[in-house]
Predict the structure.
Amino acid sequence: MSTENLNPFEIVQQQICTAGQCLALDPAIEEILKEPKRVLMVTFSVKMDDGTAKVFKGIRSQHNDAIGPCKGGVRFHPDVTLDEVKALSMWMTFKCGVVGLPYGGGKGGVICNPKELSQGELERISRAYIEAIASIIGPDKDIPAPDVYTNSQIMAWMMDTFSRLKGSNQFGVVTGKPIIVGGSLGRNEATAQGCVFVITKAAEKLGLPLEGATVAIQGYGNAGSVAAVLLNKMGCNVVAVSDSCGAIYNPAGIELEVLYQHKRDSGSCINLPGCERISNEELLELPVDILVPAALENQITAKNAEQIKAKIVAEAANGPTTPEADRILFAKGITVIPDILANAGGVTVSYFEWVQNLMNYYWSEQEVNDKLQTIMYNAFDNVYAASQQHQVDLRTAAFIVSINRVAEAIKVRGHV
Ligand code: NAD
């Protein structure tokens, strides 16, 4: 059966089945894992700048809390759907599981278009949403964080609203906050840093020297641009990057300092002098050693997977590869570092932020990065060992490692 047209919820259910088969998973546990434990849908009204009241809908999905409180971002987007939020909360459980964090998965969303909202309206929506879901969140229940179109300012408003409701500061209720109100050093770079740590491990396994390795990065935003700089520092040659306006390619390598200024001044990567303009599709098919999809879902599909030439695909983005494309890449011998491992650096440093909030004792950036490296290296080794043991791709192996952990907690707690 073709899996190309499945929605994210159906895809994650299928990923659970695939890993479940390798593990001979107890059918009751599989059934538990295939649905969120709790989903809250809320409707709230917000006073807009023109004095009218507008009604918004929000969702919070808590997939599993057998290992610890739920954890996951909140996205503000007009296309937020229930199935999407449910799926994202499930991936969060497995992301936390694969790096061994004491968390389960959660995710939230508000159907709105931040591009059409003033700062005041955004603030009122953020506060109203948190008030509406306050009974099911908290530092020991469920800890939201930023996601698409939400940022550290929004996290500050959310934390403040929850604190007011409780009558005391509750810094640990959300992560991704500004440093002055309990944010962690290293959080902004964490996703890319974690991704680079696992790329280093994968390259080692393949005998691919990073010095001189060529890199293409799709999506030059937070995750992609920081990954480019970090890989460059390790000796890699970043030859192509892209954003929503298009892609650029220079086989001799792109000067990242110059690119930084060009993007800052012009708002995009395109038209950087000395680079060839190519399409986003062409970028994916370039003859490079390392490809980092860091933009959107469903970029590597059954249509273009045959044409991918990279030796390593490191999924900084969530869900860039469809299940059908996964099979093609595996058959071609391409190492795909799956999203739940490759971009888990973000939630790992969110976890560090929460730990620092609970202790009220803050770490240096070096401490954060050292701890992140230990966790990412261990996670890669565990996933790699599972892939060898079960003779499966790294994605299935990551699910195996993660599901094993969650299943053990479910069993030992006597939930089945
Ligand atoms: P971002 O908004 O900072 O960057 C996204 C980039 O992708 C932008 O440069 C945008 O122009 C570009 N883009 C959009 N459409 C594109 C297209 N069609 N082709 C090429 N580029 C396109 O977002 P981000 O925080 O860097 O997140 C990127 C991905 O990484 C998302 O999938 C996100 O879920 C995932 N991720 C991010 C974090 C994090 O901490 N930032 C953590 C985990 C996962």
Remarks:
- The pocket of nicotinamide-adenine-dinucleotide is lined by residues 191, 218-224, 242-244, 280, 294-296, 316-318, 343, 346 (CB under 6 Å).
- The chain has 14 helices and twelve strands.
- The chain has a mean pLDDT of 96.
- The longest strand covers residues 38-47.
